[in-house]
Amino acid sequence: MKLDTNFSQIDLSGKLLIKARLGEDVRMFPIHNEDITYDELLLMMQRVFRGKLGTSDEVVIKYRDEDGDLITIFDSSDLSFAKQYSKRVLKVTLFGK
Predict the structure, then answer these.
(1) CATH number of the domain that 69 lies in?
(2) Where does the record place the PB1 domain (predicted)?
């Protein structure tokens, strides 16, 4: 079986990538609006993990720093710092409350 290798046609240079984990499910996708707010990110996570994450589910979004600590993204200011800190790929983990 031959796999489709059209990924080489997608230009991701300069784009922020989000790598999101919810339990054992991991997704990766580019962000087209780099000025994304926390609320927009949360809505995006609900779409990406539909069926596993509902609009009424309370979720905490965290990223890992250089010490291995999980840092909570609480608002758009935290998200802005996380994007600057992570450079090209923002790796986040979602936790249910």
Answers:
(1) 3.10.20.90
(2) 15-97
Residue 8 domain flag = no
pTM higher than 0.85 for the full model? no
Handedness of CA 58, 42, 55, 94 (dihedral sign): negative
The domain in which residue 52 lies consists of: 14-96
Non-local (6+) Cβ contacts of 91 within 8 A are 19, 20, 21, 63, 64
- Going by pLDDT thresholds of 50, 70 and 90, the confidence category of residue 31 is confident
Please give the structure tokens belonging to residue 74. 């609480």
Interval 32-54: pLDDT, tens: 877 899 999 999 999 999 888 88
